[in-house]
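In pairs, describe these two lines:
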Amino acid sequence: MQLGMKESEDPGSGAEPLEVEGDVASDPGDHPLPGPGHRRLDVFLGRWRLAGQQFESPFGPAARISGWETYDWLLGGFFLIHRLEGRLGAAPMGCIEVIGHDAATDSYPMRTFYNDGRFNEWRASEREGIWTTTGEWALEAESLSVRCTTLFEEGGATRMGRWEYSSPSWGWQTFWDVQTTRID
């Protein structure tokens, strides 16, 4: 039985959906549409080749970074799905991330799930074409503030990302410098 159908109705009979009160729309035409804040994420869409460097830090030893990323809209256009697969030195790395838009703060909440079983929450913002992602990263001994500054260059064909960390003991220090190139 489909949502909104009486048990005795055949879903293929062309019967009208039942009206449901609350957050469930009674007619497919009642669904909201993504707004301009969602559309700003379009700059990320597509497949990207990733290359860069991890510097020695609390996140690990110096290592080469390589891989690919994809960004696609989830059906409906409210959430951008980001997938990363690659290598950090000799180790495999990967994540899947869901990015939305919070109209109240005009920011982008992000939930990331990593191949090692961890997950994290981030928040991004965009100002004059510069994207800044911020969050906290828990290590064994402490939690570090983390930020990534992302710039698009060459008409959006290249994306530069600098990941930095900070704690009360020291100022901002770079631990990842990456460049991604749009493949399609």
Observations:
- Residues 1-26 have pLDDT under 50 and may be disordered.
- The chain has one domain: 36-182.
